[in-house]
Amino acid sequence: MPDELTHFNAQGQAHMVDVGDKASTKRVAIACGSIRMQATTLEKILQGNHKKGDVLGIARIAGIMASKRTADLIPLCHPLALTHVDVALTPQTDPPSIDCTVTAETHGQTGVEMEALTAVQITLLTIYDMCKAVDKGMIMENIHLLHKSGGKSGNWSSIK
Amino acid sequence: MPDELTHFNAQGQAHMVDVGDKASTKRVAIACGSIRMQATTLEKILQGNHKKGDVLGIARIAGIMASKRTADLIPLCHPLALTHVDVALTPQTDPPSIDCTVTAETHGQTGVEMEALTAVQITLLTIYDMCKAVDKGMIMENIHLLHKSGGKSGNWSSIK
Amino acid sequence: MPDELTHFNAQGQAHMVDVGDKASTKRVAIACGSIRMQATTLEKILQGNHKKGDVLGIARIAGIMASKRTADLIPLCHPLALTHVDVALTPQTDPPSIDCTVTAETHGQTGVEMEALTAVQITLLTIYDMCKAVDKGMIMENIHLLHKSGGKSGNWSSIK
Amino acid sequence: MPDELTHFNAQGQAHMVDVGDKASTKRVAIACGSIRMQATTLEKILQGNHKKGDVLGIARIAGIMASKRTADLIPLCHPLALTHVDVALTPQTDPPSIDCTVTAETHGQTGVEMEALTAVQITLLTIYDMCKAVDKGMIMENIHLLHKSGGKSGNWSSIK
Amino acid sequence: MPDELTHFNAQGQAHMVDVGDKASTKRVAIACGSIRMQATTLEKILQGNHKKGDVLGIARIAGIMASKRTADLIPLCHPLALTHVDVALTPQTDPPSIDCTVTAETHGQTGVEMEALTAVQITLLTIYDMCKAVDKGMIMENIHLLHKSGGKSGNWSSIK
Amino acid sequence: MPDELTHFNAQGQAHMVDVGDKASTKRVAIACGSIRMQATTLEKILQGNHKKGDVLGIARIAGIMASKRTADLIPLCHPLALTHVDVALTPQTDPPSIDCTVTAETHGQTGVEMEALTAVQITLLTIYDMCKAVDKGMIMENIHLLHKSGGKSGNWSSIK
To answer: Which residues bind substrate (chains A, B, C, D, E, F) (predicted)?
Structure first.
């Protein structure tokens, strides 16, 4: 890993890092996070998958759409064309929560870690939005990168 | 609190809830969250406030700008005109982390909880982006609503 | 109705019409349209509502989100804060098609016809996108305003 | 053509389809549609091309700009860099209407059908917006893909 | 005028200034600027108004649309709903140039100076874009606020 | 240089020029501009770099973010993926002003002149926004392309 924050030039001023000479390679990033809630809230969400409103389906769409907006939201992030995004949502009962895992891929000169993390954040936020009328105390937590591959720095995993 | 998820109509289909008959009142929401990191990463950020790149200043701007994009990102969120947004960032040394607290305000028919939470998320993500070259294992956590006031449901605090 | 196209000034140059002196009133617009398809495509969509991918649920979300982007897309359209959007989708078997009806509302100085029509268009386009792998020949048709109320020009209906 | 809706994974959950292994080829799509109106409305538009406001010129620009926003509007659409967009508008007198034909091109891993169709939709909507003060009953119709080429599925035409 | 830069709080940190207690009044701002070019470039533009491509018509639309995006572009700018935007373009022959004057209006708690200036900038940039194939040396200059009215600070003019 | 404005087809109608057959080459553009102000305003900005609000740091971020939005703002501009953006800000005391120079780079089929110029414009506008409470008379001037390289038309400099 580099010793310095690369988003600043020699004068300490922010710039969009020059990636023009980096090789185009396949890039994959997997990120995850959770939203904790009351047991009754989780119950309402799970019912929704069957016969009422589909909270998880809508949150998944919001996450996918947000991944495409990443470079609009994160100031020094390079624009790139995602080739694949998948948002998996898994309910957990102890404690009551929804786990979110996002896989993002492209073929390009920069990684897709930010796209995967942005999708996780907006997916969880959308779950919050749709349930906040019944449970304002939900907590989003443990949002982090699980794995990345591709590029000069190669593979990285949060689990060694 | 209502008993049901209000973002769905009687047929269980998502809609943007009708707020046309709600009173326009002053709305305030305060949300918070943290990003945990290695001690050496925190050190680099804190140096940056003085003579190198200003990670926290850039993250603050990203959070404020994102709060204005909330209705673009969260599918069923009503568009509204924020009258005030403040992003406070506080370094913590044990464990090494940055705490983020956002205050959002408007005068209108819907609350600004989502605007405050979106600003927290994008502020933390921007810190991640700017430091990921040296620390990919940073974790965003404990993102939640602290307080809201205004509107029919009145005051709410996460601390009872 | 006026005799002239109001989006041009006396010199014939486009401008965003001055609505500053118009009264703020409740505005409602209802627009509709259809997408015609093969019978087997409709069948796949209807199965999706139950156990496979939810085409209609996703199209509904896309339509609601697009209604919030109307002023970004239509050059001379005034920005406004929608207070309610509802997208209703009804399958028809003869001919095989999906009907879309959108209700949009606000309280303001301009109407919401464009917001309702934009939601219809993007809802239908999203159905097209999700089914085009099996049916590229789908046709979007009969997209028009059904009804509007509010404002100086008062009520209008396509059915006299 | 595939037998299934490809925008869903094996669990029936929406994802952005993985196109990372598809070949980059030249992609062309041509889409069309019409807006029907009163004879006096058409007359006003045609006068505008000469000495008053230029409805068709503005609608053409709106369509081109919208084609660049396609991936922002259509949830599971891949972002791509268009290399060419052309919007042709042809007045018809019987019945009074404007025909719109859009050609979109890129060199990439996914097709540009959605970009061409989105441009048609927003071009027609902009004509509606600019003329609605004199003719709210205009109808958009017959919006469909005419032709596509490039990619694994090769050529397709609506006219066999 | 205040003595300090108001976009920073007492700690010198950027925030979106609280305008929640300001009165809603009618706000008008007029801004202007020019783009200087070769005489042959101006000639091509002026021909375009008659029989070839309409550079000025397209630039005017780009300026109006950009004014609606101001709060997306300028970090600490409050979102607001414009009620009127007019872009006037006047060719000058000595030196060869196009003058641009934009009037923006709203009724609200903050001024519309930034909206008027953003429209001027993007209008001029669009002229540059459309003519750069024949004249890369065009210069944009003298972009400033001419006049504003409304709000606590009242009237201001660049000409005393 | 070509003899005609290339953004129009043979009928004089605007289109997004076909660049599909152009070679992908490294593209660089450097653009610049200034904002003139009162001496006391410059002083406040320069103090800000040390202990108060960081006007220049925020303006730099706004410029970089705006460069990524260029194709959204300029109607006939091709979307492209920037690989590098750098915004340099230099205070001048006689007359009191801030000079802005932006370097933009990509590897692609079209140039990045518009991206560099858009970043200059929005950087200067953001300085205006942050200082307008104390100095509404600031003037943006001398905004032009300094240099470009890459593509069929090769190198170009404003200084011969």
So the answer is: 76-78, 114-115
**In the numeric block, which tokens belong to residue C89?**
């989708």
Q: Please state, in angstroms and rounded to a whole number, the distance separating the CA atoms of residues C56 and C97.
A: 12
D6 CB neighbours in chain C (<8 A) are 133
- Check the annotation: does F138 bind a ligand: no
Please say whether the dihedral angle defined by the alpha carbons of residues B31, A32, A83 and B55, taken in this order, is positive or negative: positive
Higher pLDDT, E124 or B51: E124
B58 touches chain F (CB under 8 A): yes
Probe site for chain E from B84, B90, B106 (most E CB atoms < 10 A) = B84
* Three-state SS at A150: coil
Higher pLDDT residue, C72 or C13?
A: C72
**Residue the block writes with tokens 């464990």:** B95
Give CA D111 to chain center in angstroms: 13
Mind giving me the DSSP string for B62-104? Answer: HHHHHHTTHHHHSTTPPP---SEEEEEEEEEETTEEEEEEEEE
Tens-digit pLDDT profile for residues E84-98: 999 999 999 999 999
3-state class percentages of chain C: helix first, strand second, coil last, to nearest 5:
30, 30, 40
What tokens were used for C44? 């796949």
The full set of domains in chain B, from first to last, is 25-157 (3.30.70.640)
Nearest of C8, A71, F125, E7 to residue D72 by alpha carbon? A71
Averaged pLDDT of chain D: 92
Burial class (CB in 10 A: 0-12, 13-18, 19+), B44: buried
CA quadruple C132, C136, C141, C144: dihedral positive or negative? Answer: positive
Asked whether the ipTM of the predicted complex exceeds the cut of 0.90, the reply is yes
> Is A107 buried (19+), middle (13-18) or exposed (0-12) by CB count in 10 A?
middle
The pLDDT tens digits for D70-102 are 999 999 999 999 999 999 999 999 999 999 999
**pLDDT tens digit sequence for F69-79:** 999 999 999 99
Neighbour-count burial of C45, counting CB atoms closer than 10 A to its CB (0-12 exposed, 13-18 middle, 19+ buried): buried
Is there a binding annotation on residue C76?
A: yes
Cα–Cα–Cα angle for C68, C73, C76, nearest 5°?
A: 105
Find the distance separating the first CA and the last CA of chain A, reported in whole Å.
16
Q: Per-block average pLDDT, block size 10, for chain B (160 residues)? A: 76 90 94 98 82 81 98 96 96 97 95 98 97 96 97 88
Q: Which residue has the tokens 């991640």?
A: B128
